[in-house]
Task: structure prediction
Amino acid sequence: MAEEKKDLAVNEKKEIETKKEHTTPLKRYLPATDIVETEQELLLYMDMPGVDKENVTVKLEKNVLQVDGMIETKPYSELKPLYTEYNIGNYTRQFELSNKIDQSKIEASMKDGVLSLVLPKVAEMQPRSIQIN
Amino acid sequence: MFGRFSNAIDALLAVQQSVEAARRNDYFDRSTTYRGSYPYIDLFQKGDDTVLTVELPGFNKEDINIEIKDNLFRISGERKLDYPEVSSVHRVERRNRKFDRTVKLPVRVDSEKVSAEYTNGVLKVVLPRAESDKPKQIEVA
Result:
């Protein structure tokens, strides 16, 4: 049978729609995220352009990992928009972690608008090869 | 585009996707610039200068190229995502995307004085208006 071809859509910024109302004026976006797993850890990469290292908060509460990135609006204050294709806003996203993750050893780093999270797996979940005698 | 489809839902979805894709690009528009493409660009005005911003998270500075001629602005680049030796991928929303886009600016630009900076994944290009493009005030004698 012939291969079915599907066009890839342009990835647009996803605005978050919630029933809750917010007190901050900016829009909220869902950061594009890649999640990959290696033998020892789970790695998360999140695109948050315009967010400085200082303005990222990563919270962990009852297995829920909450990531917030506040955007720097100062550079835009003196600018008058002429033509806009995208809007800016804060980023927020939540992930529920399984108990496979060693929650005390989570590491985060930020570079060029990309947040990287390293979630190590607990020792007994890591694969082990068993010697045959 | 329409090959053989294994089921009706897929066929309908493909039709919808193609229609949406056709609407997204500006094939039916009269504009010379291609709007439906990546990356998205914002243009601002600051005094006499035009400021252009593009969100390009996770790029190497060296992989972003900018060319300017008169009122044409071309940006091209490629993001290289390097993951460690991966045993499985759970979610892929970010793209390893190569792009090349040209936009027409509202004014002619003095290409010698253009400056660009890349901070926190946002590229900001300041484009000063060319002297020859500025309106001249004529005094009434």
